[in-house]
Amino acid sequence: MGLLGWAIFALVVSLIAGALGFSGVAAGAASIAKLLFGIFLVIFIVLIVLVMLGIGAAT
């Protein structure tokens, strides 16, 4: 499972925990989801820039 998959998993856990009233668990899972999504987004942007510069482009 990739990094984005883990972020989506943490988001789902936070939504379920929030719906069941576990506010502490929901807040923790939501913060993990935000962190993982942010890391994924940074990696994605770096890879896009590298491909545009021709560095590491797949042949």
Which key terms come to mind for this protein?
single chain, 59 residues
Mean pLDDT: 77
Order of helices and strands: HH
- Taken as a percent bin, the fraction of beta residues is under 5%
The biggest beta sheet is recorded as: none
Terminal CA distance: 25 Å
Q: What share of the residues lie within helices?
A: over 70%
Oligomeric description of these chains? single chain
Number of helices: 2
Q: How many strand units?
A: 0
The geometry reads as: rod-shaped
Total separate domains: 1
Question: How would you describe this protein?
Answer:
The chain is mainly α. The protein has one domain (3-53). Helices cover 83% and strands 0% of the residues. The protein has helices at residues 3-20, 23-53. α1 runs antiparallel to α2.
